[in-house]
């Protein structure tokens, strides 16, 4: 629906909001739709969901600007919702598309500060614009690592956690310790575990009693402007085995992998790709690709791989990448 077809009061309200948004973030950081003239570039929606009408895309440059936007929306048209993304690369799950019509999209990729990092204790305080690549580069050659996903290095660590994504080592929600939230009335609160200013404390993520932490994952109850994220200990050696097997062998393969998992021979999330994805990764159309991570000290990794090879009895079908 075009702006000129809307009720006059809504148009005034939207125009006022856009004017004030420009004052808050600056002209360079807002894209608007006005009649047929549109400066909106939402990017490709690779999720095949039906596209929604979007009134504006706004990129605040500070937490203070985020708070001002919330106050502005509260005093104006309550029918215009905000849709928040961090980097907005939620490919396959909606990309940047809002859930409801006529939303104003807030992209937080300008909030890129790594506020604090503690290698010894294994945590980092990061903002929504911090990408996997940013953290991985920072942790290179350290005793800690990030539980990365298989998505692009340019995706947001916070965005993926809020979407309850899957890392290569474990569920991303397991990496979440604390959140900084701007509530719908514009208050900044902290939930979950945050480091104590003067002394080290144990990670007591859920505290006492009901926990508010996961009220804010996969929900639209607040805008997340910061998170405390776990950094995992880096093993001496990590290897990813690439196994391909015929589609008709799926059941047998799953049973075999289940046993390896039960015997704790698999270190991370075991992935079995469908035949379409397998083809895109270089396999043939009637095959499944499996990625199996093995890590630990050198001896453990070598021993585990030799057990795998022994189990498979056909060593030539196994390819593995040394990392
Ligand atoms: C080839 C390929 C491989 C992939 N592999 C994986 C994988 O291994 N694991 C995986 O999990 N995904 C994977 N994905 C899917 C997707 O790319 C990732 O989940 C990606 O991290 C999500 O995009 P993002 O980090 O930019 O999050 P965003 O798109 O920024 O955020 C995701 C959602 O979280 C909410 N949100 C984000 N930020 C905020 C905020 N600050 N405040 C409030 N709510 C917020 C919003 O609802 C938003 O829509 C893959 C995709 C492709 C194409």
Automatic annotation (TrEMBL):
GO terms for molecular function: D-lactate dehydrogenase (cytochrome) activity; D-lactate dehydrogenase (NAD+) activity; FAD binding. Signal peptide: none annotated. This is Similarities with eugenol hydroxylase flavoprotein subunit (Modular protein). It comes from Xenorhabdus bovienii str. feltiae Moldova. It comes from the Bacteria. The keyword Flavoprotein applies. InterPro entries: FAD-bd_PCMH, FAD-bd_PCMH-like_sf, FAD-bd_PCMH_sub1, FAD-bd_PCMH_sub2, Oxid_FAD_bind_N. Gene3D superfamilies: 3.30.465.10, Uridine Diphospho-n-acetylenolpyruvylglucosamine Reductase, domain 2. Keywords: FAD, Flavoprotein.
């Amino acid at each position: 629906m075009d702006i000129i077809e809307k009720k006059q009061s809504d148009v005034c309200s939207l125009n006022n909001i856009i004017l004030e948004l420009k004052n808050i973030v600056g002209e360079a950081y807002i894209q608007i739709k006005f009649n047929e003239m549109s400066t909106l570039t939402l990017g490709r929606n690779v999720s095949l969901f039906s596209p929604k009408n979007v009134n504006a895309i706004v990129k605040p440059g500070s937490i203070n600007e985020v708070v001002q936007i919330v106050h502005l929306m509260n005093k104006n048209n309550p029918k215009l919702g905000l849709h928040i993304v961090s980097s907005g690369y939620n490919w396959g799950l909606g990309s940047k598309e809002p859930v409801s019509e006529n939303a104003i999209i807030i992209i937080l990729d300008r909030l890129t500060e790594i506020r604090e990092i503690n290698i010894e204790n294994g945590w980092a305080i990061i903002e929504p614009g911090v990408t996997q690549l940013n953290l991985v580069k920072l942790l290179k050659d350290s005793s800690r690592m990030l539980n990365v996903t298989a998505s692009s290095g340019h995706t947001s660590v916070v965005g993926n956690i809020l979407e309850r994504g899957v890392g290569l080592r474990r569920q991303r929600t397991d990496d979440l310790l604390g959140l900084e939230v701007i509530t719908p009335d514009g208050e900044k609160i902290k939930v979950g575990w945050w480091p104590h200013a003067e002394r080290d404390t144990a990670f007591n993520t859920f505290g006492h009693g009901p926990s508010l932490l996961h009220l804010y994952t996969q929900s639209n109850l607040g805008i997340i402007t910061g998170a405390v994220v776990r950094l995992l200990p880096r093993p001496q050696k990590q290897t990813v085995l690439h196994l391909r097997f015929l589609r008709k062998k799926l059941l047998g393969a799953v049973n075999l992998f289940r046993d390896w998992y039960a015997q704790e021979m698999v270190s991370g999330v075991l992935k079995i790709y469908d035949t379409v994805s397998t083809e895109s990764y270089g396999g043939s159309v009637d095959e499944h690709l499996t990625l199996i991570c093995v890590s630990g000290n050198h001896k453990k990794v070598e021993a585990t791989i030799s057990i795998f090879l022994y189990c498979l009895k056909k060593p030539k079908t196994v390819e593995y990448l040394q990392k």
